[in-house]
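Structure ticket #2291
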Amino acid sequence: MGDVNSVVARRPATRRMVGWAAVILCVVVLVVFALGTWNPADLIVLWRFAGNPTIGAMIVISLALVASWLLAPIGSEARQINRGRLRVVLALGLFVSVLGYLLAGPVFAVKYEVLAQRDARAIVLYDPATDTQRLRVWAGSGLGRKLVGDLGKPCGQTSVTFVGPDEVEVATSYLTVRLRLDPATGKPLDHLGPTCTG
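Resolution: structure written out below.
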């Protein structure tokens, strides 16, 4: 009997431990995706892995639902009405977040292609082969790499070459032009013109 009682006693403790782990993970994910969506420093790692708030909402609400199930089990629906209501609210929130991901998620899922890189600088084409493609500049390395500027909208097939540490040559279907970067920060000093021919 003693062994059976000890097993039964351990189960709630394990359940609570897993539940609190879900709570902590929920808070961490919420903070990370909030920073990724806001991203005041334009960090690439946040933009890539935590820049889609619809994914963040799904993960956070799922973890909250798991935590509520583990930490606040419903023994009596008549006595624990608020717990039941919380489960319903979280389930509805999860449904809405999944719907939001299906409808708005692709807006945040920007495709990109690194066209040229030299030392800690890279020229990246966002949304390649679309009408909304843009050339942007990344600077830095590792977790500190960030977006530092926009070179403009290239037209058609685009290639980029570093002709110097602070200068790039951009060749599109309509023109070839050299653009300067700030030697200290990498921010663009020149930009592509408003039209395809400059």
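Closing remark: The chain has a mean pLDDT of 92.
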